[in-house]
From TrEMBL:
Domain Enoyl reductase (ER): 8-333
Keyword Oxidoreductase annotated: yes
Protein name: L-gulonate 5-dehydrogenase/2-deoxy-scyllo-inosamine dehydrogenase
Gene Ontology MF terms: metal ion binding; oxidoreductase activity
Superkingdom to which the source organism belongs: Bacteria
Length: 339
């Protein structure tokens, strides 16, 4: 048996005991050691996710140790690992075009497949990503969101030295974007949020300017010349109105990477901006072929992960964790369940 934290209906989580997953052929069993709670998990648990059915065991940002494997994969036993969360069909039109994240029959760990809020998880061996022993398992949880962020930067064609970047929203994804923008040599990096503590962390991770949007509007500040108009804007707010700000502040000819998940929310925008500024807008969905880069970045200590994983809880303490995450209490950015 194993403990899992399961969302049984919108807004309801239950800690329960279930059978350990039985391994199918070509699968390994991973004992989960850390499982982070992503802000998209909060939306998922509330039932705001597209195409979700309950019950579901959430958790797509996790790490663990391989504990069982079929004979031919015995060498994996004892290895620290994370896993690619996408299980595409490899047969549909999108898969044939190499867009696994858009697969028409996609299964995803923590959404349509059992996630990491559990003591064990069965994963197809093709999805297992063994990681170097030198990476602490707690830090390894950041590999998944970092792979998404790396994908975001690839989608906009990279960040060139001397380019200016704005990152709207400084949750973990926004802060990872700021860290990578700094590593890539952006000339100016603006990070916005309405939580001052997060902006302080953003400064430590590479932001050259921060703006608390509860004091003033980013549109006013950028368009009146008090702050620059960026070449690239990443919207990591998870709030539909963030997209309007991105459209309004980006420089003509600029690029927007849309990274936040705003569920079914709608924004009021002036679409003519897209034409008048000849903008390039990129949707960023899921980690793609960017896991190796994310592992390398963490292995080489290129990002200050301890500033991002601010809290640790036991699975039994889920109500406190969810309260902190939902209400952004006590300086929380990412919290991890320690299993
Ligand atoms: Zn996530
Ligand atoms: Zn497919």
């Amino acid at each position: 048996m194993m403990k899992v934290l399961r969302a049984t209906q919108p807004g309801r989580l239950e800690l329960c005991e279930v059978e350990k997953p039985a391994l199918k052929e070509e699968q390994v069993l991973i004992q989960v050691k850390y499982s982070m709670v992503c802000s998209s998990d909060i939306k998922l648990i509330r039932g705001e996710f597209h195409g979700l059915s309950f019950p579901v065991v959430p958790g797509h940002e996790w790490s663990g140790i391989v504990v069982e494997a079929p004979e031919k994969y015995k060498h994996l036993i004892g290895r620290k690992a994370v896993a690619d969360i996408l299980f595409p069909c490899l047969k549909c039109e999108q898969c044939r075009k190499g867009r696994r994240n858009l697969c028409e029959n996609l299964l995803e760990i923590g959404i349509s497949l059992q996630g990491g809020y559990a003591e064990y998880i069965a994963v197809d061996v093709t999805n297992v990503i063994p990681i170097p022993d030198s990476i602490p398992l707690k830090h390894a949880c950041i590999i998944e969101p970092l792979a998404v962020v790396y994908n975001a930067i690839q989608r906009v064609g990279g960040i060139k030295p001397a380019e200016t970047v704005a990152i709207l929203g400084s949750g973990a994804v926004g802060l990872l974007l700021a860290s990578l923008a700094k590593l890539m040599g952006a000339a100016k990096i603006l990070v916005t949020d309405y939580i001052e503590e997060r902006l302080d962390i953003a400064k430590k991770l590479g932001a050259t300017e921060t703006l608390n949007v509860s004091d003033s509007s980013v549109i006013d500040e950028c368009n009146c010349g008090r702050i620059f108009n960026p070449d690239i804007v990443f919207d990591a707010t998870g709030n539909a109105e963030g997209f309007n700000a991105a459209l309004e502040i980006v420089k003509p000819g600029g690029k927007i990477g849309y990274v936040g998940y705003s569920a079914h929310d709608k924004a009021s925008i002036q679409p003519s901006q897209i034409m008048l500024k000849a903008l390039n807008i990129y949707g960023v969905l899921s980690p793609t072929e960017t896991w190796t880069e994310a592992v390398n970045i963490i292995e080489n200590g290129m990002i200050d992960v301890d500033k991002l994983i601010t809290h640790e809880f036991k699975l039994e303490e889920y109500a406190t964790l969810m309260d902190y995450m939902s209400n952004r209490k006590n300086g929380i950015i990412r919290a991890a369940f320690k299993l």
